[in-house]
UniProtKB/TrEMBL annotation:
It is an enzyme of class 2 (transferase). The keyword Zinc does not apply. GO terms for cellular component: cytoplasm. This is Dephospho-CoA kinase. Catalyzes the phosphorylation of the 3'-hydroxyl group of dephosphocoenzyme A to form coenzyme A. The lineage of its organism: Bacteria, Pseudomonadati, Pseudomonadota, Gammaproteobacteria, Alteromonadales. It comes from Alteromonas naphthalenivorans. It is found in: Cytoplasm. It catalyses: 3'-dephospho-CoA + ATP = ADP + CoA + H(+).
Length: 223
């Protein structure tokens, strides 16, 4: 059910990473990363979620929000002074220079916070969920990479329904991300999310059992 690259040698542990076992999880917009991480969390695994961290680094009073307000003006804020995320979404995904500006501001802040959260994690392994794992070369932080995969037409349909965004906006977000083929080529394990949530959950449980066997033994050997 879960596709795993068993034929190839076990990926080498990168020399520049922490002693924590980090399983990267990625997928395009609307592919089901949150659905998969919810299940890993229910199994007791620590989740480091780039989308959540991206929210933390722009909270009221943060350096991130101050710089965004200086750049886009006060019109980018809601009445209570917090970020108008829908307005910023429209802004950056319709203008590649603005998107690049925002990425350059936020990605170093997001990376720093994620590294701290990895260092603080206590489960046998942790899940690092990052939409732009492949694009941002973050697989260097990971022992393995899971790709949550479904056809692009499904990503589009699910993201439009969830966000109430137009087809054109979701398509422009998808166009700014790696292609399905590029992402799949970076995968050690693939979760097929083209069917029901139950089918997705079963695959998460199978991977969790495999990682728990493998990495609890590793942790005991290294302690
Ligand atoms: C533009 C913002 C404010 C829109 O917020 P919104 O609440 O509408 O969306 P959310 O943050 O939940 O992102 C939804 C999805 O959009 C995609 N996405 C978000 N940012 C980017 C980006 N810079 N490039 C490509 N895809 C992106 C991802 O698939 C993500 O899961 C927000 O996405 C943002 O701050 N983006 C820049 C930070 C970033 O790169 N985040 C992605 C994690 S590294
Ligand atoms: N197998 C499935 N069947 C039906 N709906 C699903 C399935 N998997 C996910 N969804 C729904 O599709 C939408 C997108 O899923 P989810 O939020 O998990 O994707 P994501 O990869 O985290 O998206 P993003 O990159 O935008 O954060 C959600 O509304 C979710 O409930």
């Amino acid at each position: 059910m879960v596709a795993t690259k068993t034929a190839q040698a076990e990926p080498k542990r990168p020399s520049n990473k922490s002693d924590k076992v980090v399983i990267g999880l990625t997928g395009g917009i609307g592919s089901g990363k949150s659905a998969a991480t919810n299940k890993f969390a229910a199994l007791g695994i620590d989740i480091i979620d780039a989308d959540e961290v991206a929210r933390e680094v722009v909270t009221l009073g943060s350096e991130g929000l101050t710089k965004i307000t200086e750049h886009f003006g006060h019109a980018i804020l809601l009445e209570d002074g917090t970020l108008n995320r829908a307005a910023l979404r429209e802004c950056v995904f319709n203008n590649s220079e603005e998107k690049q500006w925002l990425n350059q501001l936020l990605h170093p802040l997001i990376r720093k916070t994620m590294l701290q959260q990895i260092a603080d994690s206590t489960s046998h392994y942790c899940i690092l969920s990052v939409p732009l794992l492949v694009e941002g070369n973050l697989s260097e932080l990971c022992d393995r990479v899971i790709v949550v995969d479904c056809p692009e037409s499904m990503q589009l349909e699910r993201a439009m329904q969830r966000d109430g965004s137009t087809k054109q906006l979701i398509e422009s977000i998808m166009a700014s991300q790696a292609t399905r083929k590029e992402r799949l080529s970076a995968a050690d394990d693939v979760i097929d999310n083209s069917k029901t949530i139950e089918f997705l959950n079963k695959q998460v449980i199978a991977l969790h059992n495999e990682y728990s066997r493998k990495y609890s033994a590793n942790n005991e050997n290294s302690s």
